[in-house]
Specification:
Oligomer: heterodimer
Helix content of chain B: 55-70%
CATH class of chain A: Alpha Beta
Number of helices of chain B: 8
Largest sheet of chain B: 2 strands, antiparallel
Number of domains of chain B: 1
Largest interface: A-B, 24 and 41 residues
CATH topology of chain A: Alpha-Beta Plaits
Helix content of chain A: 10-25%
Strand content of chain A: 25-35%
Largest sheet of chain A: 2 strands, antiparallel
Strand content of chain B: under 5%
Shape of chain B: globular
Structural class of chain A: alpha+beta
Order of helices and strands of chain B: HHHHHEEHHH
CATH architecture of chain A: 2-Layer Sandwich
Radius of gyration of chain B: 18 Å
Number of strands of chain B: 2
Chain lengths: ~70, ~200
């Protein structure tokens, strides 16, 4: 199943994805980058559309980190 | 979209950004209130080790979202990748801090009596806009007003840049190279690394 995955090297930890996620599946890890809870993520892609850097993308992943 | 979430008082902080610029239009001394936006993120980052300010309390980011998404003033297209690259982010931070330093120096020159108070707003660090209605003397010395004019210029310029990139690209493209965001993320990353070792 497709899930949101975050490129932590590009992520600026602005938190737009957290605010937009309808499932509350995203958190900002200690102000460094966004972390996706793959158990909660349904791969809707709302975070991808909101992300200003293009770091978060819906893809075939295992652990929420690309 | 995300409308099922309960709204908190801090979801309306975009109104504060508008109030801030409105107050500064009438009296430049209110520009000092913008220091809250400078100091609070640093306190959150240094004391809390998080970007709670960006994530929750940034009125400017919220304003870009409200205008871009809710009012549909944004193309919502991905920004060029270099905008969120490390060299551009840290380069912009260095540039921004240099300009901030220059502004503080200008304030010092008025404090020292070398320069007189100039009632102008400088947009994009280049264009001078007369702003003399916003100050007619006060109980404070002139350098306090000079800092106000300089700081208001900085706040207005950065908001205008943010509005331009909001219209052209994603709503909160400004966040990807916001100097405060870069600085606080840098602090958080150092703290996180130190916590591990």
């Amino acid at each position: 199943m497709k899930k949101a995955a975050n490129d932590i090297k590009r992520c600026v930890a602005c938190g737009v994805c957290v605010l937009q996620c309808p499932r509350e599946a995203i958190d900002i890890y200690k102000g460094c980058h966004a972390v996706v809870d793959v158990m909660k993520c349904v791969g809707c892609g709302i975070c991808e559309r909101a992300c200003p850097t293009g770091s978060i993308k819906v893809a075939e992943v295992q652990d929420g980190i690309k | 979209m995300a409308s099922n979430k309960t709204k908190h008082w801090y979801d309306y902080l975009w109104i504060w950004t508008i109030i801030y610029f409105a107050l500064g239009f009438f009296n430049i001394l209110f520009a000092w209130l913008g220091m809250i936006d400078f100091i609070l993120p640093l306190i959150f980052a240094i004391a809390g080790g998080d970007k709670l300010f960006c994530n929750r309390f940034c009125g400017r980011g919220q304003l870009f979202w409200v205008l871009g998404k809710n009012c549909k003033c944004s193309r919502s297209k991905p920004a060029p990748r270099w905008i969120s690259s490390k060299w551009f982010r840290y380069g912009f931070l260095a540039f921004f801090m240099t300009m901030f330093g220059t502004m503080v120096f200008q304030t010092y020159l008025v404090f020292a009596g070398t320069n007189t108070l100039r009632k102008v707003i400088k947009l994009f660090w280049t264009f001078k806009v007369p702003w003399k209605w916003a100050y007619n003397g006060s109980v404070f010395p002139d350098w306090v007003a000079q800092f106000g004019f300089g700081f208001y210029s900085l706040m207005l310029t950065s908001t205008l840049i943010g509005l331009i990139v909001m219209a052209l690209y994603k709503e909160r493209t400004w966040c990807s190279f916001c100097p405060m965001g870069t600085m606080t993320q840098g602090i958080c990353k150092i703290k996180e690394r130190c916590g591990k070792s």
